[in-house]
């Protein structure tokens, strides 16, 4: 039985509802997901299926977008400087030849410390401070600054430690005070106990036989860079899909993968980043958006083993996922299928969440259809 589509769209965005309904019709009967979009600070799409409007989901690496926004604000303020060495803020990071690295390079996944030789415990993965302590002593897996690879589980902890050293406050605290609370966003880095009943546990991937064959054919050696980056070589290997289902991870909200959000929260954050929302000015100035959305790492990603591109903390969304977006679009996907971005050229802010882990991980395939439909409608206004 096809899920009923709930919610509203603004005039001119009716085709987005149709695309969402078509995507849902192709999913399992137990599909749960949400889609939300803003254009120039006005909500134009608010749709969901299989759940209620207020459900919250683990959004995995879409969390990195919130972490990057915090750093962008602090750079804009002058509190952080992109071309200072990381050791200016965090002297202990100099160990094992990492002292040459700048904050700009750190944010662009060029540090080379995608994990540690022995891996992390669950308690460490949930706690950015503990991760940072372990990473400070780690020998990099490539010469810092000379190449790049996705720091999947640790990039937020690296940024968090710089933020904490520079401000005396954690990245999560700055996010709460300057971004989440002022806009009332349903996007949490550290889920408060009263919000727990809204959380929907992530469901595991359910691949077809053909999809499972592709997964089985992927290199899975325990000491590859990919295994180290995703902590699969640890004494207790990490099951990525289960991370947000663990209360400790939700409570601490690690800045790489621990965010809990609705599509409204994802889209609302990016709308606030680039547009006037209500009577509040955009969080970021155009020059800051351009700086953080500029290509900084482009080419062969040593962890993903494929072509990737990153700005500063953000994925360069127009290259990574949606080539129809304007140059300099910023955003980040999440392993379960979530996707969120801002396109300053069209004024579009987009957020999508789903409950079941999507194949093959990263932005779920339906985001291509949905984002294109929203973007086309936004340009037609």
Give a short synopsis of this structure.
This protein is of the alpha+beta class and 381 residues long.
Descriptive terms for the model:
381 residues; seven-stranded antiparallel β-sheet; three-stranded antiparallel β-sheet
Architecture overview:
This protein is an alpha+beta fold. The protein is built from 15 helices and twelve strands. It is globular. The two termini are 35 Å apart. The model has no long low-confidence stretch (mean pLDDT 95).
Order of secondary-structure elements? EHEEEHHHHHHHEHHHEHHEEEHEEEH
**Total number of helical segments?**
15
Radius of gyration: 19 Å
Indicate the mean pLDDT.
95
Shape: globular
- Label the structural class: alpha+beta
Q: Biggest β-sheet, characterized?
A: 7 strands, antiparallel
Care to count the β-strands?
Answer: 12
Approximately how much beta-strand content do the residues carry?
A: 5-15%
The strands making up the biggest β-sheet line up spatially as 1-3-2-12-11-10-9
Ends: how far apart?
35 Å
Q: State the share of residues found in helices, binned by percent.
A: 25-40%
**Regions with pLDDT < 50 over 5+ consecutive residues?**
none
Protein topology:
Layout: E1 5-9, H1 14-25, E2 33-39, E3 42-49, E4 57-58, H2 63-77, H3 86-89, H4 103-107, H5 122-125, H6 128-136, H7 155-167, H8 171-183, E5 187-188, H9 209-217, H10 225-229, H11 247-252, E6 260-261, H12 263-274, H13 286-293, E7 297-301, E8 306-310, E9 315-316, H14 317-320, E10 330-333, E11 339-343, E12 348-354, H15 366-380
Antiparallel strand pairs: 1-3, 2-3, 2-12, 4-6, 5-6, 7-8, 9-10, 10-11, 11-12
Helix pairs in contact: 1-15, 2-7, 2-8, 6-7
């Amino acid at each position: 039985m096809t899920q009923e589509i709930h919610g509203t769209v603004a005039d001119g965005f009716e085709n987005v509802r149709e695309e969402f309904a078509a995507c849902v019709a192709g999913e399992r009967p137990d599909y749960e997901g949400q889609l939300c979009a803003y254009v120039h600070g006005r909500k134009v799409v608010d749709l969901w299926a299989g759940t209620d409007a207020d459900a919250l989901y683990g959004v995995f690496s879409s969390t990195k977008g919130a972490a990057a926004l915090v750093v962008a604000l602090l750079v804009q303020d002058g509190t952080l400087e992109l071309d200072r060495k990381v050791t200016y803020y965090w002297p202990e990071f100099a160990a094992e030849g990492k002292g040459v690295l700048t904050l700009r390079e750190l944010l662009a996944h060029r540090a080379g410390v995608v994990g540690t030789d022995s891996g992390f415990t669950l308690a460490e993965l949930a706690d950015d401070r503990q991760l940072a302590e372990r990473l400070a002593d780690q020998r990099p897996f490539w010469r810092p600054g000379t190449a790049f690879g996705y720091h999947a589980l640790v990039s937020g902890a690296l940024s968090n430690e710089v933020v904490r050293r520079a401000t005396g406050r954690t990245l999560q605290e700055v996010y709460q005070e300057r971004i989440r609370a002022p806009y009332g966003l349903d996007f949490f880095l550290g889920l408060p106990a009263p919000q727990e009943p809204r959380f929907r546990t992530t469901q595991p991937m359910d691949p077809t036989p053909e999809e499972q064959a592709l997964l089985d054919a992927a290199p899975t050696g325990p000491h590859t860079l990919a295994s180290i980056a995703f902590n699969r070589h640890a004494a207790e290997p990490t099951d990525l899909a289960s991370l947000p289902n663990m209360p400790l991870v939700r409570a601490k909200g690690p800045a790489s993968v621990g965010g809990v959000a609705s599509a409204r929260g994802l889209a609302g954050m990016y709308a606030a980043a680039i547009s006037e929302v209500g009577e509040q000015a955009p969080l970021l100035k155009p020059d800051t958006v351009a700086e953080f959305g500029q290509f900084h790492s482009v080419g062969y990603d040593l962890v993903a083993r494929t072509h990737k591109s990153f700005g500063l903390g953000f994925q360069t969304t127009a290259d990574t996922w949606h080539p129809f977006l304007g140059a300099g679009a910023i955003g980040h996907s999440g392993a379960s299928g979530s996707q969120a971005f801002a396109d300053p050229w069209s004024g579009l802010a987009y957020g999508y969440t789903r409950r079941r882990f999507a194949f093959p991980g990263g932005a779920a395939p339906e985001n291509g259809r949905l984002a294109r439909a929203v973007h086309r409608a936004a340009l037609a206004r």
